[in-house]
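Job type: complex structure
Entries:
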Amino acid sequence: MAETTSTGGSLAIRNLVKSYGSFTAVDDIDLDVPEGSFFALLGPSGCGKTTTLRMVAGLEEPTGGQIMIGAVDVSRLRPYQRPVNTVFQNYALFPHMTIFDNVAFGLRRRGAQNVRTKVMEMLELVELSHLAGRKPTQLSGGQQQRIAVVRALVNRPKVLLLDEPLGALDLKLRRQLQLELKRIQADVGITFIHVTHDQEEAMTMADTIAVMNKGKVEQLGSPVDLYENPRSPFVAGFLGQTNLLTARVSGQSNDVLTTDFHGVVLSMPTSRMAAKGPAVEVGVRPEKIHLADLGQAPVGYNVIDGTIIDASFIGVSTQYLVRTELDAEEELTVFSQNSAISLRQVGEKVSAYWHPDHTFGLHEGAWQEAEAAEVAS
Amino acid sequence: MTAPTLVKSAPVVSTPPARAGMGPGRWIRDHLVVLVGMIALLYMFAPILVVIVFSFNKPEGKYNLVWNKFSFDAWRHPCGASGLCESLVTSLWIGVVATLGAVIIGTLAAFAIGRHRFRGQATSNVLVFLPMATPEVVAGSSLLTLFLNLGIPLGYTTIVIAHIMFCLSFVIVTVKARLAGMDPRLEQAAMDLYANRAQTFWRITFPLVLPGIVSAAMLSFSLSFDDFIITNFNSGSRVTFPMYVWGVAQRGVPVQVNVIGTAMMLIALVFVIGGRVIGARRNRLK
Amino acid sequence: MSIAMAAGLSETGPGGVGPTPAPGGERRKLTPYFLLLPAALAMIVFFLLPLLTLASTSLMTGSLESGYRLTWHFPTYGDVITQYWPQFIRSFVFAGLSTLLCIAIAYPLAYTIAFKAGRWRSILLVLVIAPFFTSFLIRTLAWKQILSDNGAVVDFMRSTHLMNITDLLGLTQGRLLATPFAVIMGLTYNFLPFMVLPLYASLEKIDRTLFNAAGDLYANSWTTFWKVTWPLSLPGVVGGTLMTFIPAAGDYVNAQLLGSTGDTMTGNVINNQVRNFAYPASAAMSIVLMVAIVVLVIFYVRRSGTEDLV
């Protein structure tokens, strides 16, 4: 394969399937990753995200479907015939070679010119050129991680695959490297595909996220889109916390859909309803809810009255648990910014309100799936 | 928990200043272990010291059992005892050939068992252990019956075959362990970095498995060089070094045997320590 | 040298490799068989076939002059067992005792190297294997010298009256050489590293924070040892036991060099029979020995609950 520039670095996956005996790890997925984007595959362990990545890398043979890089179908090519490189989990740096030889490995295999210059340039990029003569075991975890990225990037792949690249690092270092990876991606402009189970990491770094669950893509979109308008209970639960109330659809006028929760009307934009049928669940994120003294909620909002049954002070915010007046089974979690002068007390009766535009709708029974997803995240 | 109980139990529960807190009983027990360990080491070295010391002896009669007089004679003429150096050369050659054979056959098999999936893999895994679980008398006498039945004359060839057979399992187990300890992602990374299968094997797999192969070879050589029981059944008229020692044991061991024993240990020590030093230096390279 | 062997043995647990070969064709499926072929052929021709020959030889009758023929003569087995049962018993008692002694001696040593040696660790490991670079026959002969009737060890045991106790136990007879004591000591000595190295390998793997955790949960060091260290080192104990017991039970060199004619073991008998061309009897003895060892090993491995070790 000749040296590649970053043209034709889009990735298209069509009807990709991978099964092991009767177990289907990746179940007929389609993905389109535009060239130059930072794309994340997010999901709990066993959701098929790593298998998908390994099929793109050529380390796993698809049971069916196509993988296209640019206009080329690479599905049946060997790993070393594909214009992709991988940053492995735990880095997989060759222990018997120096850092320099590790980084030069791919270039030498392809008979590239000016290996030394290219390697040193890349080492400069991550400010580790002084370690070129060391062995991998003499480097810290963060340094090894950077070398793993550089070893892949130096080959100027059309697509760079990152398999939980920050999983082995501590939180502080992870935050730092997230930003650094983002900077590198912006610098080199190569398509990055990043597999992670950490929703915060995915949201920080990626411009597009595909949320995967049980071998399927649940939802694809920008971090904001996924968070603000989850189209499935899994997405709602996996990315942050969510409140879900069981309600019935009562009407639709223009772009507004109204539902009935024990006689109270909760409305939302029609486009934000992901389910059909009369029985639905109405969702809202905890930080979107405000609390007012009972009966003092402003007009034009969705309002539910209730009693505070628990309050936890977390510094920047306070987390309240409000039991609704109309249904003792339903509780709302509310994240309230601590900008008020005094905190509300347990036992206080309040009106919880939020803007209809922050409301979304899911199918009946979604709360159970959302709860399971929240546990898995 | 009320305040008084907390205060009361505090001296017991809390950890008093670092080492003193282990208590004298623990201190003695800790060091008792070390003491017993050192006695064990002494036990292992006692006969070696005797061998070394008596390599400088000038015995009165033909039995090198009682200290008589310090002398370098035996060291100056290590081949002074008739037949000794011939047996040594025989053993060295057999060791080299058997090691080569066992390492080549065994490494191939280790790769098959450790790196591939195939029918009969579980059986192969168990079969590998069988020769190790066979007492040497049984292995030796059974090979002898085979050679006799097939009419193969005993000698150099039969010794080499016997040695390859008892080294084989150890080679397979050692190389397989090394393979198992290798991260499969390293090979995947090489493939990902444009190395084809042959390049991946020679640049990644082989160098990483090499230490295992080297230690398997050293092990094979020392097993072969030191074997007596199996060799004794299958040697015919060939005399290896252990067989020479066995033979002279009855009529008085020449001092040269002690010299060879001491020299063997020194050479092996140089190899082992040298290997470690090189390994350590490589790791410390900046 | 033998480090690799012993450590390798105990490391070979489950946890097989999961190689993910890239997409490949039919040819690749045959590769393992090609790789395995030489070893498999060697095993069949020079290990399994000899065992079969051994089995058939044990059922033959005849003499060296007239030749041996397969007559399915099973009574040979009865004969060798009735005639040589003391040797069989002695083989297993001597091997068992020396294995126990090996554990008793090797454990403190392995423990010291694993947990107490600090930076001396690798030097100690070299020291453990160093003696075994010298031919084991030479070392066994050196023991003969050490234990000789006018040696320091005998003097010491006589002057401290230790000898009276060992005499009473039937281990010594007013002297050390040519007694069961000498044979058991020789066996223990010769197979000691095969116990130390697996023990070391499994002790070394134990996470030290477990000791702190046990201490934190009110276990004193004695309890910590029996409840935490010992159970976790069992794979090493079992591995070492097999590596010690099996060769010890088949050994005849120690009995020959250090024992008297009253201390002979199965190996001595087999060796003598082969020297006297009594092939059917020696074959029958070998088969009995091997079956007995296999039965004992299976029983032992089952009891210790470490089947997945082998």
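Summary: Residues 1-21 of chain B have pLDDT under 50 and may be disordered. The CA atoms of residues 183 and 223 of chain B lie 30 Å apart.
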